[in-house]
Design a protein that fits this description.
It is built from three helices and two strands. By secondary structure, it is an alpha+beta fold. It has one domain. The longest helix has 17 residues. This is DUF559 domain-containing protein. InterPro entries: DUF559.
């Protein structure tokens, strides 16, 4: 499960931890990513996500597609 945490994450951290524990018990992993990283470093975020799945992320080149 991928969760994008925004500015209010500090306010919801206890509930997030509880939900993550419940999901982990069900066999899911939670990958948390900061909203600012999605906005400012999308390629880095995609590479981070890909690494968790054992996939090599290929950055888009100018004028091309990944």
């Amino acid at each position: 499960m991928i969760e994008v945490d925004g500015d209010t994450h500090g306010l919801t951290a206890p509930a997030d931890a509880s939900r993550a524990a419940l999901m982990a018990h069900a066999g899911y992993r939670t990958l948390r990513i900061a909203n600012g990283d999605v906005t400012n470093n999308l390629d880095g975020v995609l590479a981070h996500i890909a690494s968790h799945f054992g996939v090599r992320h290929m950055a888009k080149e100018k004028g091309g597609t990944a």
